[in-house]
Design brief:
This protein is α/β, with parallel strands linked by helices and about 400 residues long. It is built from ten helices and 20 strands. It has a nine-stranded mixed β-sheet, with no helix packed on it. Strands 7, 8, 9, 11, 12, 14, 15, 16 and 17 form a nine-stranded mixed β-sheet that branches. The chain has a two-stranded antiparallel ribbon with strand order 10-13.
Length: about 400
């Protein structure tokens, strides 16, 4: 059964992703659907690869990662960076290591939680990195990938103190920043956070970094400056994503690794919609909590439930419509149906989607469907121009410098 699913995944990926032989000299980022977990593959212009996290256990997420790896022609993972040790981020590590060589493991050091979310993981992980290279990252470190400036800005609860190029100015959004108590899951606050720069293109990935850690990083001065793409923290859930972080970064594009029932909250989507200069939000899933008011157009969503499931959610919002939350609806989003953004598929053009009978399950977390899953791909050029592609419908949008 796994072999059959793997063939299906590979076929879907092959339709939309170029092979290694045809790939141009771009920084390519593949945001893999792990149903509210995390697995993001970076392939540098030099061909070096770095995978941030490996999704959930059970083989499904590993199949999805390997479908991308196989199609783009990677023979090894040069770096596997584990942001922290929660199951939706490290559950697939052991299975992935059986499928493809991993040359170098990166992490923040030992877990700060006594109870492992994946039983026996620390011992098994030590055995894996004992046969390869292993680096415990500290804030301020660099990952040596040719052609990229990969800076570690948070690790083990610490943030960089020295501003990066373009950073260092006072952050006006700190004036309204209010700390929030976090009494559980302290591993989230240990997350390894990265700023990746290719020429004039810049993106940020902070794993599941918590609200207060964002304040430590961004206040009173913003050490990062602005970014082009914000890989949304913590799957788009409320313990992360403060305006002191998001609005100060002022991303042009946000890409969210959410599930249907995990992430994409009203708070997160309101913060994104009101962020200065934000042009688009791309999501791995249509977020049930965001409802019809906050989710972006389907053009920007990689995986969508079958129509009946969506209809039930839209027509019966939780709490009698409380999903609007404080502050009312967001500013106008993408054009309405009938007036798609430039680059949208022409009317009547074939659009890839789930196979017949392959409707999506309720999703979220380690549950969800086991059928085909679609990737969001980003390709960045050295001049700062970048293109984002939804592999479900082949819709692409280019953001020019």
């Amino acid at each position: 059964m796994r072999r059959t699913l793997g063939i299906v995944f590979a076929f879907i990926v092959a339709v939309a992703l170029p092979s290694a032989q045809t790939r141009s000299k771009t920084l390519d980022i593949y945001v893999v659907d792990t149903e509210g977990g995390k697995a993001t593959l970076f392939v540098s212009p030099s061909g070096e690869s770095l995978l941030i996290d490996a999704g959930n256990p059970g083989g499904r997420d590993t199949d999805r990662i390997m479908a991308v790896v196989s199609e783009i022609g990677l023979k090894q993972i040069d770096y596997l960076l584990l942001t922290h040790y929660h199951v939706d981020h490290i559950g697939g590590v052991q299975e992935l290591a059986k499928r493809i060589p991993i040359k170098h493991f990166l992490d923040h050091g030992p877990s700060v939680e006594e109870r492992e979310q994946v039983t026996g993981f620390q011992q098994a992980y030590a055995e894996l990195y004992g046969k390869a290279a292993h680096t415990v990252l500290k804030a301020g470190d660099k990952v040596p990938i040719a052609g990229l400036d990969w800076r570690i800005v948070t690790s083990a609860g610490k943030a960089i103190k020295t501003p990066l190029p373009g950073g260092g100015k006072p952050n006006p959004y700190c004036a309204d920043f209010k700390p929030r108590e976090n009494t559980h899951d302290p591993e989230n606050g240990q997350s390894v956070g990265s700023i990746v720069t290719f020429g004039t293109f810049k993106t940020i990935d902070l794993g599941d970094l918590l609200w207060n850690n964002e304040g430590d990083l961004m206040c009173p001065n913003n050490p990062i400056g602005t970014v082009d793409v914000y890989l949304v923290s913590h799957h788009g859930t409320d313990p992360s994503g403060s305006t002191a972080l998001v609005h100060a970064l002022a991303p042009r594009v946000a890409i969210m690794q959410n599930g249907t029932r995990k992430g994409g909250t009203v708070q997160t989507l309101q913060t994104l919609h009101t962020s200065p200069g934000l042009e688009d939000i791309w999501q791995l899933h249509w977020a049930y909590s965001g409802g019809s008011e906050y989710n972006p157009s389907g053009l920007f969503i990689a995986n969508i439930d079958d129509p009946d499931a969506l209809a039930r959610v839209i027509t019966t919002p939780p709490g009698g419509g409380r999903g609007m939350g404080p502050g009312g609806p967001p500013p106008a989003g993408p054009p309405a149906a009938g007036a798609p953004p430039a680059g949208a598929p022409a009317a009547g053009a074939p659009v890839a989607g789930p196979p017949p009978g392959g409707g999506r399950g309720p999703g979220g977390g380690r549950g969800g469907h086991t059928g085909p899953a679609f990737v969001i791909k980003l390709s960045a050029q050295e001049d700062g121009t970048f293109t984002v592609t939804n592999t479900r419908n082949n819709f692409s949008k280019t953001y020019r410098r």
